[in-house]
Amino acid sequence: MPRFFVSKDNINEEERIISILGEDAFHIARALRMAVGDDLTVCDGEGRDYSCKLTKIRDSQVDCEILEASACPAEPPYKVTVYQALVKGERLDVAIQKSVEFGACAIVPFESSRCIVRMKGEKEGSKSQRRRRIAAEAAKQCGRGIVPEVSEPVSFTEMLSQAVKCDLAIFCYEKEGDRMLGSTLEALRSNPPKSVAIVVGPEGGFSPEEAETAENAGLSLLGLGKRILRTESAAAFVLACLSSEFELR
User: Fold this and answer.
1) Beta strands 154-155 and 195-200: pairing type?
2) Domain-by-domain residue ranges, the chain?
3) Is the model's pLDDT at 120 over the cut of 80?
4) What number does CATH give the domain 79-246?
5) Which end of the chain has fewer CB atoms at under 10 Å, N or C?
6) What is the C-alpha separation between 80 and 148, in angstroms, rounded?
7) Is the pTM of this model over 0.70?
8) Cα-atom radius of gyration of the chain, to the nearest Å?
9) Which helix (H) or strand (E) holds 111?
């Protein structure tokens, strides 16, 4: 069933009407060629779903009747922020898309010492807009109840200061051979974290100095297993492990 996100200002609970505007309205009218009476799901972006029926279709505005409202079942019981190092090409786009699909609530790009791609001030604005569109499309596709925020890139130091505030801050480090992700999550099974940070490095990984700085700041340096994952795969792997441990049991 088609799924669309709207502002809460466009939801009239009393009259049981929701208005969809702009590009989404045009997409319903022209691309999907939906008709009055067709069913769709509308989400307020805060985790609440509305089962609706189309009542009026125009290119600039589509109105629908609210049939039922409920909490979105697709949201995990914890909040995960993925801190993804800047990477070249489409790898960051893939990391964002998969992080949204696997349950992240926010993605924060950051710059580390081995990043080939660097923050470039004004040029980052258009890149961030594209990244937010990728997150929005992924949220629609996988039935999320929110559109995860993709922030502007931050420094390594700022990333650490944000990540350490979470109940569990995972610093994915391929040279960590003693402390593994699986045993860490298993130990938390009886008291699952409410907030999680996942920190993933660039193509060349983190430097030993960065790993030491992260550990001193309070992050948990954890290995992800015997195989070294690509930077665009690591966050999705960790998110899948979190889901298996705390969501699917």
Assistant:
1) unpaired
2) 3-71, 79-246
3) no
4) 3.40.1280.10
5) C
6) 10
7) yes
8) 20
9) strand 106-111
